[in-house]
User: Fold this.
Amino acid sequence: MHGLWSNLFKGSSSRDDNRVLLKNTKIFTTLSKRQLDSVDRIVYKRFFEAGEPVFQQGDPGIGMYIIESGVICIAQMPDEHVLAELKAGDFFGEIALLNETPRSASAIAKTDCSLLCVSQPDLLGLFKRDPKLGVKVLTALSQITGQRVIQLDQDILNLHNQLEQLSTNGNGSAVEHQTET
Amino acid sequence: MLAMYQLSDILQLVVLAALFAYLLDPAVTWIESWGINRSLATLTMFLIISVVLTITLLFLLPVAIDQLSQLQTGPIIDQLELVITDLQSRIEAPLAQVGINDLDLLTSIKTYVTNFLRETINYVPNVLAMLSNFLLIPFMMFFIIKDGNTIKKGFIGMVPNRYFEFSLNVLQKMDLQLGNYLRGQFLIAFIDGTIITTALWLLGVDFFLVIGPIAGLANLIPYVGPFIGLIPALLGSILSTGNFDTIPAIIILFLCVQLLDSSFMQPLILAKNVEIHPLAVLLAILVGGKLFGIIGLLMAVPFAAILKVIIQETITNMRRYHLS
Assistant:
């Protein structure tokens, strides 16, 4: 019930705060003041108590979240392996803005949190009304996704190298072991 | 419950305003993409509609009023009497062979019509009240279109966190399915109405401006709708020509419109149809008609579709979000 009352009677949060937070979020950095106002109008402000899940792994993704305050824990089920801890100013779930894939991990509030949610349908609606805004946001999103791909490539390469090194070491030690015997 | 019943008129207005606002929303969004804000875009759309309506009414209203007034004047009644006497003389001879005499169709029909008119007149004050209320609809529509997003945010704001993403998803899926369906249905009704009006005019049927739009709107009601349009068209034809010569042409016209509807317009315009079981359609029409009269009759199927999509999407998404 806490969710209902806190969301129903939430304080009169100043729109300026939202605008500053949006402006500092990588996806919306290039937007003008008027465009930030448009995004602010479609944003949902949600309050979560410590321990409350924001979304569960496997749920259909519907939008991204920007952390206004508090700490969010991104964890992979079933062993609740923590992938990251995000703090004020960070954002997560942005892939859901591109397509409705199931969430790859769960997001749980570690402390009491205040989040801004940007839903995909609302954002697509905004793109129809203001295509220039759409171009800016989609460019930023593709840059972020591109950086992630490069990072992932690098991680895969590193892992591959480590594996090769391990197998070389393994073979070497096997040869050593054979000569010894 | 009693209070709800007394408020049903206002509820009807709000629901109708919301429905029309929903139908017009993409148009406002399109105007907004010209680079103007939502309030101005909404105003622009109302201005365009007002201009189109004024021009249409300026040309068509005098003719429609003339046709309606003809319905109440003597010549038509005389014509009707002639037609009925003619019909009686045609069917009396074969019926006399099986022992049925003295039909006196004229008196029976007059009694029936008088009773029907008396009952209809009882509804007139309601219709007048409704018409005055109808002025409120554009006013409500304006604010629903302009502040639609704020209203939606208000409702979503009341949803507990556990159901937040679920409700956003249900709303999106509903919008995807219903948007095309409802806008498509109204577009088809408009096209049907235009075709029937034009064809009736070409066939020389009087009251084409009254019958055509009624037939178009009636097409919102599946199965029964075409008959609701066909009967007044046949009556109008008999009254204006005094014979039954144009009846085959009118029946063929309605059949062609139905064919055009099912084989061309519905697959083209309603890309993904919301299928409703015929029994559900019948029940919806009965309940809509009983509760809200003519408006209920017309809106029964669109609202049945809305209800079906709400239930369907809620159940589907409850499973997807592991809520059931």
